[in-house]
Amino acid sequence: MDNGLRRFTLRMALFTGIVALATLALGLLDTRKGTTSDYMAAIIDKHAMLERAEGPRVLLVGGSNLAFGVDSRAIAEATGRPVINLGLHAGLGLSFMLNELRAVMRAGDVVLICPEYFLEADGDDALIRATIRSFPPAAAYYRQGPIEGLEHFLLGRQRLFKRLITGDEPERITLLNTVYARSGFNAQGDMIAHLGRVDHVDLSGTEPLEYRYWEGIGAINDLGREAAERGVQVLCTFPCYPASVYQKDSIAIGLLGADLERDLDVRVAGRPQEMVLPDSLFFDTVYHLTAEGRDQRTRALIALLIPRMVRPQAM
Length: 315
What we know:
Blueprint lengths: L2 H27 L12 H11 L5 E5 L1 H4 L4 H8 L3 E3 L8 H11 L5 E5 L10 H10 L11 H21 L4 H4 L41 H14 L3 E4 L4 E2 H21 L3 E2 L7 E2 L13 H15 L10
Parallel strand pairs: 1-2, 1-3, 3-4, 4-6, 5-7
Helix pairs in contact: 1-7, 4-11, 5-9
């Protein structure tokens, strides 16, 4: 080995060692470990519900638009089936949600997929890792290649370093002690701690959606084929949305709806307009509903779901 190559090798080894030590130091300084009382720890209870539910079930799959926007008891009464609301947080990403569904669905189930608009395939690394710390089996839902894994890890360390310097905490952490806690969910997986509160989101500064061809179409098609082979019926529908924001986003949402109608193999239940509700029925985001909004949205979902459900013996 010549001197130039030896120096290069030593420098690379030194650089790698510095990165490893910095990463270890940041990890030791990160005290925000997931706990069993955190909002995301509700995944523990949702999976316990899945295990307890007998016979064919109705599984609701999506982000917090479902957690904060559905009365699963009412859907269970209307369908005569146990209903488990798996909705937690859009930040988990569509891939995580679909991989979770693959792990838990069984023959005879009816699955209603209701993602937020243009939901990203990849979720937030820090949020996913906090969820895994609370519920280790969730690591199986987080699939990525080595390059993507390194990128997500370094981004997570970068965010942590910034928080350590500035003292800032993500909004989701500061809200954990209000309604955003595991204890806020009921026995069907619905968030109910916010019901009756008078908080309302200010929608005036909401950024408009930008249209793009949604990669989730292919992912849901793959899931739908696998589900059909396992005797599971899959439907897809649209999330709740405030009227004033829909006016700004109607073109992007309309184009998405046309893409779904043309390219999605899974049956689409309803139209985006059917899930548009008055602004006054939204709680603290464009996807979280008040008690009255939740009731209206649930009735709309039941009307879409009942006539489209295939009975187990017919599947």
